[in-house]
Structures are given as structure tokens and as C-alpha cells.
Design a protein that fits this description.
The two termini are about 40 Å apart. Helix 8 packs antiparallel against helix 9, helix 10 crosses helix 14 and helix 23 crosses helix 25. The chain contains 25 helices and 25 strands. It is α+β, with helices and mostly antiparallel strands and about 750 residues long.
Length: about 750
């Protein structure tokens, strides 16, 4: 089959550009996708590489800075320029103009705009007049005012002078913010501009006063959302399982995140105050932490008691020579990005959910404090002076409240169309608290607890699966509740069976989402969220992937299938034909003869020779797609210096047939030699009837007796043997440490270790 030539920028991003940059993560490719989509929306349709021009690029960038966030516009500008350079190098479009490579700094650009304006500008008013007289103004607060002034500059595409402050200058900008930004952003920017306007009028710099009928942008106040205890437990568990170290430090990622999240929930402090905590502020003996006044929003020092869990978590990262308890040497934005990855892995937020950060732990602390000890305790815990401020942090959905049952009037409805009459009798007023709730029987069907569902309603049965209205799903009789769209997609997967697959169009149609933007990304987000939900609720799905890519992957127009069996794929059912492969009764075409020959040799127990890395990678990717293996499974194993062999998950790896000689290891008639020192050490070990010490090793290599030199020579040979024979055991174990160390060669064919 011949590949269809790719023309549009989006197709090039998701195919050729991604193939040419395999180190790019899915998140990076997503950013390229959004940048190209922004350029296409401005141009009014899809773009081809030949449509890129300096004029189009400049007009798009100016519009992006004026109508959106400047930092986002600059990031997308950088991505488009990187894509343009690659397209030009590949011959898809003309070279990148040199005028686009010079990007002035934001501060220099706005300073140039001020210099071009005649008179005192708003930025000059802010930094030359307002900030010097406001001694208590924090630097970050002044920066926020600066950002609001910059947004006004971008809206007018020039610097705004102080004498231009009027309704004609400010009110259209505020209306633009209300249409394009959130209510909080619009209200904050309007407050900053009105503050500068009022300051200029009081200092007699202008004669135009703020209109008396001015109304700030309306702010819709919704119920705050806090984590439930179940969601908080999943976040703690995900923090505990974070691998690796915190970049630039010697702190384990699991200890860092678990202590940070635990203290954020226990203290209810803001993230800025938490990151400013120093080791001397922590008293583990008294179980308390001091939040510094200079890092607090209110400027008041606060003493926070901590429980045993938080004290244990913090104790794991203390005792280091560090300035902060939670040091973060990377960019501040990366801290929020890594935290979002934890929330996604824990399954407590959706892929498209934005604006969820550390402040939700503060709301969770307030909510649980109200539930446990009342409103006054929550106010003191959050450091508020009034209870009205605390109420803006509490999730009332979780706070138990008495229910008021009002009396019903006496109404008799006449039967209509042979329907039974409805009759209401007067009822007394009753307050029913939490104790009045009917408790479900242990182990009962959870779908019976939902109001509006008949307990005797039959469920749809598909093998081991059962489905009911309301998103209730049961696997092998164990009920759980999923999101409605997830339950519908799972029902379609079960209905099709493991031999068939569903496409992205099927997923979007069942989930009720329009196929706009990037349909594959939307479908992939639904599948990933459903996969996490199933793994979280059913332990048997945590090891094996329950939803696997079918027939080449969704990027090639295919889809997904449901496979709940965790058993390894049988090699006997994989057969090579003249024009492809057969596996479990299905045919997979493959035109490339080297690919078919390589799989046929590997099934026969042979290796792909050294120097065929591209072919081994092609075989690995193809077997992953055909056998439905997850990305973490590697069906191809590399034997260092020899080649690549077949090793499917769940099956024993075939041992290499080899012969030890004094010069090295002979495999399949070919001799693999270690270094000259390694050959001498190997000959000495093979010729000894008992373990030998450092003197014999040093004598073999012609060096003065030295424990360090002998250990180094043996370690080098050990690493070489492990790499050549793909061993996980130690071929040269060490014994007699107290006597200086002795070594013996325990490797005898056939080798099967680990």
C-alpha cells in the first residue's frame, strides 16, 4: 500500500515531524498542534507549508498578543518558527526569513512603546509615581498591575498615555476582557486600571474623573470545589508511587510530593508560603511548623500544628543542607505541570479540566475543618479574620446539613386516561439529619441506592459485564459507577467484542461530543480516562491493559478493542505468510520483506545481527500493534554486541547457546572478545579450580597486587558478560570479603538467569 502524501501543517506535525523527532513527548506534540490550530483559525482554514509567509506570521502574532495571553503567544511563536525551520530543511516551504529570528524581550518591547509615546504613560505612572509612594505594595502585586497595563497596550496596539484615560479608552477594553477572559481576570484587570486612573486624578495629573455610574465586571460566585477524602487518598497514593528524583536535588520524588501535598492539606496554607518554609521553621518534636510573615499574603506569621502523617512525611526530607524544606530549582510553571500529571494519573481530574492547582488543598482543609470542628475552627486554620471569607473556601456539597421536609397540602388528582390517581396527605415538618439516611446493606448492588432507578430493573448482560442506567457497570458481579460517557463507550467495546474494534468516530458519537478540533485527541482522552477508571476500580486490570490499540493504532485510522485477558500472547498462533502475518485467526498485511524475514528468523530462535537497529525497531513496533501489547512491554530484547532476539511478556526467554573459551564467548560459530585485560581475567578464572583472590587477578593482567585494581578488572568483565549474554544474575560472584575478596566463574552453558 502506498502512503498518501501529507499536505496540511497538522498532518505534517502528527506524522513526519513527530517521526523525525522521536524524543518529543505527547504533551509537546499537543502544544505544536495548538499552535498550528491557532494559526489556521487566524488564516480562516487549513494551511499547507507553501502558504507560510512573513506577512501572515506577523499579522497572526500581533493578533495573538492582542487578543490572548502574551506568554502563550510567545510560546506558540517559538513553536511555529521551529516547525518552519524543519519544513524548510525538508524542502516543504521557502526558508525562514531572517527578520523573524530576532525576538525582543517583553520588557524591552514595552519600554520602546513608552519611548515612542510623548508624555507620561501608564507604565511610567505605575513605576515612577505609584509604586514609590505605596511602600507596602508587594513586588508580585506590582507585577500583576504591570500585566494589566500590558494587556491594555496590546488592545490598542500602542502605549496609552495618562492624559488619554477616559471612557473611550478603558471601557471598550473592559468589555473585551469580559468577552474573552474569565470573570476573575476581567475584574482584576479592571480594578488595576481604575486604581491607576483614580491615583492620577487625585494627583491632579488628569481632569477626567472615573464615571460615577461605573460598575465593575460581574463576578459569578459558584460553590468552591474541594477534594473528597477518596480523591485525596488517590492523590496521596500516586505521590507515594512517583519514581526518580526531583531535578537538581537529592530528594526522592515520592518523598517530596507526599510531604508537600500532605502539609498543604493539613495546614491549608498557600503554596507560596509553603515553599518559603525553612528547616529551622519545622519543629518535629512539638509537631508544628511556622509559616513566615514575609511569605504570607496577609503579612501575619502563623503557627500550624501537624499530625503524625505530615510529621513523618516531612521528616523524610529534613536533615539536608538546604535553604528550603521543599526546594524547587526548576521553573515555577514546571511545579504546576508536574502536579497536574499527578492529578491526571490519580484520575481525579479530566484531560480537558483546567485551573486545578494547589489552592484546592486549601479548600479541602477548610471543608474538612468545618465538618470536623465547625466554622470557627476553619476560620482560624485558614488565618481569616471573618467567617464570610472562610465561606468562600468551603465545599458545601460535602458539609452535612439537616434536611427540611415541608408539609404538603392535601391534593387529590383525578385519574386521567385510566392512570391511577395521585394523592398527597398533609405531612408534619421534619428535620432529618445524617442519622436519618438509610444505610445500604454491605455488599448490596450500589445501583439500587440511586433515586429514580427501579431496584428490580433488569440489567443488560454481555458475558461478564452488566450495565444499568446512570453509568452503573458490573464486572463479574462487582458494581461500580462510571461517568455516563465512559459507561456508553465501555458498553460499545463490550458489545463489539475482542475481535472487533471501535474508531474515534464511534467514540465521539456514543459520548455525544462533536468532532471538532482534533477528533483523535478527544477520543484518545476518553479512552485514557476510561482505562484509568477501570484500573482504579478493578485490581485485575492494573497489570494488563484492558483497552488496547487495534490494527496499527488510531493514528492510522483504526481504533481500540477490549481485551481483559492478562495471559501472554501465544507464539504458536503467530505465523508468517507470503504477504503478511496471521495471528489468532486474523490477517495483518506487511509488504516489507525484510520485516517478514526478521520475524520469521526470530520465531525460529535466531537473532537479528548487529547493525540492524532500524529493522529491530520496526519489528518491535509492529509486534506491539499486532499482539496488542502496552507501550511498557518490549517484545524485542537486545544482546549487547550480538543482535536482537524475541522475548514476549509472560514467556521464558530462550537461553543463548554459547561456549566459553579463554579468548571470549563463542555464539553460533562467532567469537566475541572482551578487552585484552578481560581476556586475561577470563582465562585466569576458567583455569582455576577454586575461587581466586586479588593477587592471581593482578598477576594475570601483569599489574602490582591491588584490591582496587582486581575489583575493577573483574567488574569490567562482569558487565561485558551480562551484556553479551543478556543475564540478570551475577556470572562472577564475590566471596570472602573479610579476606580481601575472592572470585569464581559460575557461568556454565546453557545460561538461564532471571
Amino acid at each position: 500500500m502506498s502512503a498518501i502524501p501529507l499536505q496540511t501543517l497538522l498532518e505534517l506535525v502528527h506524522h513526519d515531524f513527530r517521526s523525525a523527532h522521536p524524543q518529543l513527548s505527547d504533551h509537546a506534540v499537543r502544544n505544536f498542534h495548538f499552535a498550528v490550530r491557532s494559526l489556521e483559525r487566524f488564516a480562516g482554514g487549513t494551511l499547507e507549508p507553501a502558504n507560510l509567509s512573513e506577512s501572515l506570521f506577523d499579522r497572526w502574532y500581533a493578533d495573538a498578543r492582542r487578543s490572548g495571553s502574551e506568554s502563550t503567544a510567545r510560546v506558540r511563536r517559538t513553536l511555529i518558527l521551529k516547525l518552519w525551520r524543519w519544513l524548510a530543511a525538508a524542502g516543504h516551504c521557502p526558508p525562514l526569513p531572517e527578520s523573524l529570528t530576532d525576538v525582543p524581550d517583553a520588557a524591552d518591547r514595552y519600554a520602546a512603546m513608552d519611548a515612542a509615546a510623548e508624555g507620561l504613560t501608564l507604565r511610567g505612572l505605575l513605576w515612577e509615581r505609584y509604586v514609590p509612594v505605596r511602600r507596602n505594595l508587594k513586588p508580585k502585586s506590582a507585577e500583576q498591575v504591570e500585566f494589566s497595563v500590558r494587556a491594555l497596550y496590546r488592545f490598542h496596539d500602542r502605549a496609552v498615555r495618562v492624559d488619554e484615560l477616559s471612557e473611550q479608552t478603558i471601557m471598550p477594553f473592559i468589555a473585551h476582557l469580559q468577552d474573552t477572559r474569565s470573570g476573575h481576570t476581567a475584574r482584576r484587570s479592571a480594578t488595576h486600571l481604575m486604581m491607576l486612573w483614580r491615583f492620577a486624578w487625585r494627583r491632579k495629573l488628569i481632569e477626567v474623573e472615573i464615571p460615577r455610574d461605573y460598575e465593575p465586571p460581574r463576578l459569578l460566585r459558584t460553590i468552591p470545589k474541594a477534594w473528597t477524602l477518596d480523591e485525596l487518598g488517590r492523590i496521596f497514593e500516586e505521590c507515594l508511587n512517583r519514581p526518580g528524583m526531583i531535578r537538581g536535588t537529592d530528594i526522592r520524588a515520592a518523598d517530596f510530593w507526599l510531604s508537600l501535598v500532605t502539609f498543604a492539606y493539613e495546614s491549608g496554607a498557600r503554596i507560596g508560603a509553603i515553599l518559603a518554609v525553612r528547616p529551622e521553621d519545622v519543629d518535629l518534636r512539638e509537631s508544628q511548623v511556622v509559616l513566615r510573615a514575609d511569605a504570607a499574603k496577609t503579612g501575619v506569621e502563623q503557627l500550624v500544628p501537624i499530625n503524625d502523617a505530615a510529621r513523618t512525611a516531612i521528616g523524610r526530607i529534613l536533615g539536608r543542607d538546604a535553604e528550603r524544606v521543599w526546594p524547587w530549582p526548576a521553573a515555577a510553571r514546571q511545579l504546576w505541570g508536574d502536579h497536574r500529571e499527578i492529578l491526571l494519573d490519580a484520575g481525579v481530574i479530566r484531560e480537558d479540566e483546567q485551573g486545578v492547582g494547589f489552592h484546592r488543598y486549601r479548600r479541602t482543609c477548610a471543608t474538612q475543618s468545618v465538618i470536623a470542628a465547625g466554622w470557627d475552627h476553619a476560620r482560624i486554620a485558614l488565618g481569616h479574620s471573618q467567617e464570610s471569607m472562610t465561606r468562600s473556601y468551603v465545599d458545601l456539597r460535602q458539609v452535612p446539613r439537616p434536611r427540611l421536609h415541608l408539609p404538603m397540602p392535601s391534593i387529590v388528582q383525578t385519574a386521567v386516561r385510566n392512570q391511577p390517581a395521585l394523592q398527597f396527605s398533609p405531612q408534619p415538618v421534619a428535620l432529618i439529619g445524617e442519622s436519618g439516611k438509610s444505610s445500604a446493606i454491605e455488599g448490596a448492588d450500589p445501583s439500587r441506592r440511586l433515586c429514580g432507578i427501579d431496584p428490580d430493573e433488569p440489567a443488560e448482560v454481555f458475558g461478564d459485564w452488566q450495565f444499568r442506567r446512570g453509568g452503573f457497570v458490573a464486572f463479574e458481579g462487582r458494581w461500580t459507577q462510571l461517568e455516563k460517557r465512559h459507561a456508553l463507550v465501555l458498553r460499545l467495546l463490550v458489545e463489539r467484542g475482542p475481535r472487533s474494534s471501535i474508531t474515534k468516530r464511534d467514540i465521539l458519537a456514543v459520548a455525544g461530543e462533536p468532532p471538532t478540533g482534533n477528533p483523535h485527541r478527544a477520543a484518545d482522552a476518553i479512552i485514557n480516562s476510561l482505562r484509568r477508571s477501570l484500573r482504579r476500580r478493578y485490581p485485575e486490570f492494573r497489570e494488563a491493559d484492558p483497552i488496547r490499540v487495534a490494527r496499527g493504532g488510531p493514528s492510522h485510522g483504526t481504533g481500540w478493542t477490549l481485551k481483559i485477558d492478562a495471559a501472554p500472547c501465544p507464539l504458536g498462533s503467530l505465523r508468517v505468510t507470503a504477504d503478511g502475518f496471521e495471528f489468532e485467526g486474523r490477517f495483518y498485511p506487511a509488504e516489507a520483506s525484510p520485516l517478514r524475514d526478521a520475524v520469521e528468523h526470530m520465531l525460529a530462535g535466531e537473532l537479528i545481527p548487529k547493525g540492524s537497529g532500524r529493522l529491530a525497531t520496526a519489528v518491535r513496533n509492529y509486534l506491539r500493534r499486532v499482539l496488542g501489547l502496552p507501550k511498557s512491554a518490549n517484545p524485542i530484547i537486545r544482546h549487547a554486541g550480538i543482535g536482537w532476539g524475541l522475548s514476549l511478556p509472560g514467556q521464558d526467554r530462550a537461553a543463548l547457546a554459547f561456549t566459553l573459551t579463554d579468548d571470549g564467548v563463542r555464539i553460533g560459530g562467532r567469537l566475541f572478545r572482551p578487552s585484552p585485560y578481560g581476556q586475561r581475567v577470563l582465562a585466569a578464572l576458567r583455569g582455576a579450580d577454586a575461587p581466586i583472590g586479588h593477587r592471581e587477578i593482578c598477576e594475570a593482567v601483569g599489574a602490582a597486587p591491588s584490591h582496587k585494581r582486581a575489583r575493577k578488572a573483574v567488574s569490567s568483565l562482569r558487565r561485558w558478560l551480562r551484556g553479551v549474554l543478556s543475564l540478570s544474575c551475577d556470572p562472577i560472584p564475590c566471596g570472602g570479603v573479610h579476606e580481601g575478596g575472592t572470585w569464581s566463574l559460575t557461568l556454565t552453558p546453557p545460561a538461564r538467569c532471571g
